[in-house]
Amino acid sequence: MTDLILEFYSEEIPAAMQAPAAADLHKKVADFLTSNGIEDAALETYCAPQRLALFGRNLPAELAEKREEKKGPRIDAPEKAIEGFLKANGLSNTQSLTVRDDPKGAFYILEKIIPGCDFSTALEAFIPELVRGFNWPKSMRWGNGTLRWVRPLRGLLCVFNGKVLSCSVEGIEAGNITYGHRFMAPDALTLEKADDYLPKLEQAYVIADRSKRQALIHEKAQALATAEGLVLMDDAGLLSEVAGLVEWPVPLMGRIDDAFMDVPEEVLVSVMRTHQKYLTLRDKDGKLAPRFITIANIETSDEGAKIIAGNERVLRARLSDARFFWDEDRKTELSARKQDLNKVTFHAKLGTVSDKTDRIEKLVAYFADIEAGFSFDDLPLNASDEAVIQAATLCKADLVTGMVYEFPELQGIMGGYYTTLQFEDAKIGDAIRDHYKPLGPNDAIPATAEGRLVAMADKMDTLAGFWLIDELPTGSKDPYALRRASLGIIRMLIEGEKRLNLADFIHAAMQNYPAPLKDNATAGQEAEKLRLFFIDRLKIYLRDKKDIRPDIVDAVLAVSVQAYRDDIYVLSLMAEALKTFLASENGTNLLAGYRRVRGILKKSPAEALQIEALQINESLLTSEAEKTFFAALNGLQIAEITSVADYTKNLENLAALREPVDIFFDHVLVQDEDEKIRQNRLALINQLIIAMDSAADFSLIE
Fold it and tell me: Which HAMAP family does its entry note (predicted)?
């Protein structure tokens, strides 16, 4: 077996594109190997700012002979269809084709024998196709060529079994040459074999393995922090991004000017993280430290002193801007800025941000009118609660501040700070700060009741609006983060243990929009579509977070009474209870009995239609097993579901049927020769279906 090293050397690849490109390269090469019957190869991919590479092990030196078949048209197909098939395959007549019958008729089959060849020959044909067909999110052309790549492609390294492959792309000839660090080791590196790739690059100050670079950055940055008695803030996303910016990482520690340390720490962190790609540090008390770590891409004779000084200078300029915005914004109360929101467009079809704020206020007030049973902790849900109303009124006002205009990622956070300057009640600022949460599946929900209330109103208003104008997420595209918004509401209800009628909430949100939208003939349909969208997201949430299968949720939904059909929190509890029941021995065996009954009834379709109309005749219960089963069904208590406790109790009561069901099927033949006895037994087992389906549609359980 032999090895392959393949490297595409180019100008700098954007950090965010490197890992996906490496994964795509792995898949394309793996698919190529599979298509050639190669299953045991081991592939490793590497990515760095100037290179995308693949190392293949256990590859064959030769490809075996291969037989392929291509199915053509039916033999009675129109002549043009047959001629087209012949032409596409370089044939002039059907003499070399075989005919094969299948259920759909007799078809022409083209059998081709592909002779074996050196695997290097197959690679030489594949690699140019791989380069030309490689998919980048954004690509470019350069010079006079037609090749598209993420950045100008400068070199093609292709060494297989110790030999350079004979292929080229747009005048770039394959070779055994690559390059080290552009400043510390710019000379060409010649590879004799694939195993030389990683060690030779490392000798030339290039670590090709992205995960190794990331681990090295974390290790060295942690050491710098520990030496100063500081703690490195966890930031896996930034570490990953920085690993894509350097080939030879050299962490260096700089200082933040003390004059900026009274600016809100979120501002400092945002400037350093988002704009400068610096790692941030805290002291042992958790307070932001006046230090930062930057990752250089070079070792210098002065141990990075000039690099540190340059980064401190750039940071000082950026923080001076932030300080200016902080000072200027505080001169105007946040409430005075609300009127400027009518100059900011939320969406061309959905009005301004001022319009959105008005709708959020109405939705917050909506909670005062819903039925008892819904509350946020000790927060009274009525329109007189000043903290909630003020938070709803001002939640978007920071969008017109200088700080948020310059640093959009601080929206909400700055509103929280500015609000505390105007109001003594800290709950207002906390609610505004948190109302964009959760920002992702791993982000916490708002910490306060007021924050969750405003966050839910904001997210539902957004969802209702986009459903009314029919701009919905499709496939992998969700430009307005509507999936995240729906998941946020689901999480706030479930993790906050709060009840709410989802359909009513959707209706209330849609009614806040102007007449041309809310009175649209399809508005009711859109409301139902949005409700079903929530149910789909609920299934995904329960699957990912609680390991509850979607079929279990469907089984609960199929029998939920109207009061609980749209109650996200209660549905989650019922699904969890059903999951627990099915995982128990009683539940497993009872489900098996249910399926057995379903199977028997399917075999007796004519009689099954009459079963529900039949009364069980006790005089026809001849065996003790029948009588015990009948008594258990009669004694079964299925309560009206007024709470989750009722539902759980019903499942517990069903579990008591397990033993009588087992005994019945062990000792009783349902399909008795006597028609009356048979029908009586069918009616009896049908009562099991009715009883179990009152708790969940067990026929949906996979």
Answer: Gly_tRNA_synth_beta (MF_00255)
